């Protein structure tokens, strides 16, 4: 897997738990213990009620495509062989919306509100990426 | 490999794609898409063809040209996206009293407004409107004491064709999904009943951020626009009032200004 030539996640103190979860094929998000809001991106306070009381939950991995875009230009050489590829904003059942890729179908088959589920791509020994595929 | 913001991990880069996400959500929410946007791209190009300073002055465009252009990030084709430009624009702002002594006729500010929904595109719920244009427009019209009916032309921040549509829609020129009909028959073109982006805009003149629309509005109201001058030269009404917009981020910030001839 040394040949992986795409950008790798930038892990910081807020997102470390998320990426550690991905490595275990788990989608971990912070849930506010004061108001129940499940948030992404990771942050030290709840963007809804500003509470710092947080627990990490594991999302089921099911959601729907909120919106998507089909790339016909590679803005990074690592993606040249993937064209055309789909970047989507997937809304998970638990609430957060996640930028990701839709795989397992043709770009022209993707629709807004299409049900999708997570599928994992192990890209290096340290990182796995949550991508999404159509759900029946 | 280098480490980047998490979007880049999934091959997501930059504003063309962010606005493409917004435009795609709009296509799901109301009737819009290339059929609507082609009228903005082609309409503005007709203005650019009258503007010697425009990058695209010598490049006419048809609907067919619009559809034949390559995809960039779908649903945007090449001519849905603005130009990239090196250069500059400036306007000078002073008191009305001081301006009366200057060589050129001044343009007066009637009203302005701002609204900044701020949410980053991936968590935003305003991608298909109402964007900040709605509240900013209401503030500006309130301050100016006028309504949409008093507006003679618009200079709308046009990083993408969809930005023009959603801005005009949120200002209230037409309801969600009615843009295609409103734009038909050359509404925004030379000779049209509501000229929009009369320099060619950022799609066809040059990209000077908010100063492309603002400087054009000022120049039109000063009567300094030559072949593209609103009035008899372009079979349009001589403008008394022009509505102008700017927006930033991915529909995250919006400002609106209404100007009038002195």
Concise account of the structure shown:
The complex is a heterodimer of chains A (136) and B (262). Chain A is mostly beta strands and 136 residues long. Helix content of chain A is 6%, strand content 40%.
The proportion of residues in beta strands of chain B is 5-15%
CATH architecture of chain B: 3-Layer(aba) Sandwich
Average predicted local confidence, pLDDT of chain B: 96
User: What is the N-to-C succession of helices and strands of chain A?
Assistant: EHEEEEEEEE
CATH topology of chain B: Peroxisomal Thiolase, Chain A, domain 1
Question: What is the CATH C-level name of chain B?
Answer: Alpha Beta
The biggest chain-chain interface is: A-B, 41 and 32 residues
Spatial order of the strands forming the largest sheet of chain B: 4-7-6-5
Shape of chain B: globular
The Cα radius of gyration of chain B reads 18 Å
SSE series of chain B: EHHHHEEHEHEHHHHEE
- Uncertain runs of chain B are none
CATH-assigned homologous superfamily of chain B: Thiolase/Chalcone synthase
Structural class of chain B: alpha+beta
The percent range for strand residues of chain A is 35-45%
Largest sheet descriptor of chain B: 4 strands, mixed
Mean pLDDT of chain A: 96
Give the number of helices of chain B.
Answer: 10
Distance between the termini of chain B: 59 Å
> From the structure provided, what is the oligomeric state, counting identical versus distinct chains?
heterodimer
The number of distinct β-strands of chain A equals 9
Describe the structure.
The complex is a heterodimer of chains A (136) and B (262). Chain A is mainly beta and 136 residues long. Chain A has one domain. Chain A has 1 helix and 9 strands; from the N terminus they run βαββββββββ. In chain A, strands 7-6-5-8-9 form a 5-stranded antiparallel beta sheet. A 3-stranded antiparallel beta sheet of chain A has the order 3-2-4. The longest helix of chain A has 8 residues, at 16-23. The mean pLDDT of chain A is 96. Chain B has 262 residues and is of the alpha+beta class. Chain B has one domain: Peroxisomal Thiolase, Chain A, domain 1 (3-Layer(aba) Sandwich). Chain B is globular and about 60 Å long. The mean pLDDT of chain B is 96. Strand 1 (8-9) of chain A pairs parallel with strand 1 of chain B.
């Amino acid at each position: 897997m040394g040949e992986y030539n795409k950008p790798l996640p930038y892990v910081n103190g807020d997102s470390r738990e998320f990426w550690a979860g991905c490595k275990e094929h788990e989608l971990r998000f912070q849930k506010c213990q004061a108001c129940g809001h499940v948030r992404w991106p990771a942050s030290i306070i709840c963007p809804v009620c500003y509470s710092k009381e947080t627990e990490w939950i594991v999302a089921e991995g099911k959601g729907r495509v909120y919106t998507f875009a089909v790339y016909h230009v590679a803005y990074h050489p690592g993606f040249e062989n993937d064209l055309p590829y789909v970047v989507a904003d997937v809304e998970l059942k638990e609430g957060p919306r996640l930028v990701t890729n839709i795989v397992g179908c043709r770009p022209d088959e993707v629709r807004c509100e299409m049900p999708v589920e997570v599928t994992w791509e192990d890209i290096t020994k340290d990182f796995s990426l949550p991508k999404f595929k159509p759900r029946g | 490999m280098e480490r980047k913001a998490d979007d880049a991990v999934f091959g997501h880069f930059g504003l063309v794609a962010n606005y493409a996400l917004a435009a795609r959500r709009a296509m799901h929410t109301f009737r819009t898409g290339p059929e609507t946007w082609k009228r903005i791209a082609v309409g503005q190009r007709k203005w650019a063809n009258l503007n010697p300073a425009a990058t695209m002055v010598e490049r006419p465009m048809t609907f067919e040209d619009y559809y034949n252009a390559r995809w960039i990030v779908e649903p945007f084709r090449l001519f849905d996206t603005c130009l990239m430009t090196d250069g500059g624009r400036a306007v000078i702002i002073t008191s009305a009293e001081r301006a009366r002594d200057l060589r050129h006729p001044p343009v007066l500010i009637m009203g302005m407004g701002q609204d900044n929904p701020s949410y980053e595109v991936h968590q935003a719920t305003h991608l298909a409107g109402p964007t900040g244009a709605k509240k900013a427009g209401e503030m500006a019209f309130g301050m100016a004491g006028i309504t949409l009916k008093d507006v003679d032309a618009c200079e709308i921040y046009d990083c993408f064709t969809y930005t023009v549509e959603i801005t005009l829609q949120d200002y209230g020129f037409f309801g969600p999904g009615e843009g295609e009909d409103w734009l038909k028959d050359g509404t925004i073109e030379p000779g049209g009943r509501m000229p929009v982006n009369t320099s060619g805009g950022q799609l066809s003149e040059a990209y000077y951020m908010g100063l492309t629309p603002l400087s054009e509005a000022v120049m039109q109201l000063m009567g300094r626009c030559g072949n593209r001058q609103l009035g008899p030269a372009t079979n349009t009404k001589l403008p008394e009032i022009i509505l102008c917009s700017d927006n930033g981020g991915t529909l995250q910030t919006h400002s609106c200004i209404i100007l009038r001839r002195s």
